[in-house]
From TrEMBL:
<keyword id="KW-0067">ATP-binding</keyword>
<protein>
    <recommendedName>
        <fullName>Protein kinase domain-containing protein</fullName>
    </recommendedName>
</protein>
<dbReference type="GO" id="GO:0005524">
    <property type="term" value="F:ATP binding"/>
</dbReference>
<dbReference type="InterPro" id="IPR000719">
    <property type="entry name" value="Prot_kinase_dom"/>
</dbReference>
<feature type="region of interest" description="Disordered">
    <location>
        <begin position="1"/>
        <end position="27"/>
    </location>
</feature>
<keyword id="KW-0808">Transferase</keyword>
<dbReference type="GO" id="GO:0004674">
    <property type="term" value="F:protein serine/threonine kinase activity"/>
</dbReference>
<keyword id="KW-0418">Kinase</keyword>
<keyword id="KW-0723">Serine/threonine-protein kinase</keyword>
<dbReference type="InterPro" id="IPR051175">
    <property type="entry name" value="CLK_kinases"/>
</dbReference>
<keyword id="KW-0547">Nucleotide-binding</keyword>
<dbReference type="InterPro" id="IPR008271">
    <property type="entry name" value="Ser/Thr_kinase_AS"/>
</dbReference>
<dbReference type="InterPro" id="IPR011009">
    <property type="entry name" value="Kinase-like_dom_sf"/>
</dbReference>
<feature type="domain" description="Protein kinase">
    <location>
        <begin position="93"/>
        <end position="314"/>
    </location>
</feature>
<dbReference type="Pfam" id="PF00069">
    <property type="entry name" value="Pkinase"/>
</dbReference>
């Protein structure tokens, strides 16, 4: 609960973030879905995925063993998997880069040898409570994938496996989170029409989860990812007369407004116990703070906080 999936912002750093951040991006049609792969085995059931647009370059990996297993290493003191770039997980996924880290574990960018696509693999810490939470998340992800036709609302699970006492969850690779995009864009303001489009997609995604009797409980900009990493530079008229600290007169805007929800490690079924505290502090509903009990509306409060934040300026 309160962990950050792809970008690795620990809970201890959350209170140091600016309380206000600018508005967001530009509105373009979502990326059209690509052809569908055959079903991929996910440990307990089958889930279909979409082919990534990334091309596989055999020259780049020339001379590197495709199926070699890395040497056995002890985990670090916190139970994180110790890896090296270029090694292979489960004889199928070559590690290319570290994408982020959180209290749950770490996320690695990998190449899937079977599908020739780039994926994001969440490697959970080898601690019992995190392993249990990961299995619950897998159950939620598979339930969402079964009902989310086309995979437009939530990040899609591709596979999962238990590797050296670490639960590894394979996801489609998406773009940066809304928070990450804002941070790298110097927290500059964004067009209100894009914020409106984000709001529409968020409400549709939350309604989709609620129809399945699921409550996300941890909605925040860090857990909302842009589908594409592509962006354009446009003049920032607000700073034409007064440049920013880095001396630039331009800001970045995403080419595509499509977003997806991630991080379902805190997702709760409607019938489960709701006595504990949920949501990251800045997006926590009043009924949660006051200990009055919570349910579906706590997600809607978080959506409202997010939209206000995206419409705000420094």
């Amino acid at each position: 609960m309160g962990t950050e999936w792809i970008n690795g912002f620990p809970q201890s750093n959350m209170d140091k973030r600016p309380r206000k951040r600018p508005r967001l991006t530009w509105d373009m049609p979502p990326v059209p879905p690509s052809k569908v792969l055959p079903a991929i085995y996910c440990g307990q059931e089958y889930v279909t995925g979409a082919v990534s647009s990334y091309a596989y370059s055999s020259l780049y990996y020339k001379g590197m063993p495709r199926n070699g297993s890395p040497p056995w290493r002890n985990d670090d003191k916190d139970g994180h998997y110790v890896f090296a770039i270029g090694e292979t997980l489960n004889r199928r996924y070559r590690i290319l880069n570290k994408m982020g880290e959180g209290t749950f574990g770490q996320v690695l960018e990998c190449l899937d040898y079977e599908t020739k696509e780039l994926v994001a693999i969440k490697i959970v810490r080898s601690i019992h409570k995190y392993r249990e939470a990961a299995m619950i998340e897998i159950d939620v992800l598979q339930r969402l994938a079964k009902h989310d036709v086309g995979g437009r609302r939530c990040v899609q699970i591709r596979n999962w496996f238990d590797y050296r006492n670490h639960i590894c969850i394979v996801f489609e690779k998406l773009g940066p989170s809304l928070y990450d995009f804002l941070r790298k864009n110097s927290y500059r303001s964004f067009p209100i029409d894009l914020v409106r489009e984000f709001g529409r997609q968020l409400l549709e995604s939350v309604a989709f989860m609620h129809d399945l009797r699921l409550i996300h409980t941890d909605l925040k900009p860090e857990n909302i990812l842009l589908v594409s990493s592509d962006y354009v530079k446009v003049p920032d008229y607000k700073f034409l007369a007064r440049p920013t600290k880095d001396g630039t007169y331009f800001k970045n805007l995403p080419k595509c407004s499509a977003i997806k929800l991630i991080d379902f490690g805190s997702t709760t079924f409607e019938h489960q116990d709701h006595s504990y505290v949920v949501s990251t502090r800045h997006y926590r509903a009043p009924e949660v703070i006051l200990g009055l009990g919570w349910n579906y509306p706590c997600d809607l409060w978080s959506v409202g906080c997010i939209l206000v934040e995206l419409c705000s300026v420094n």
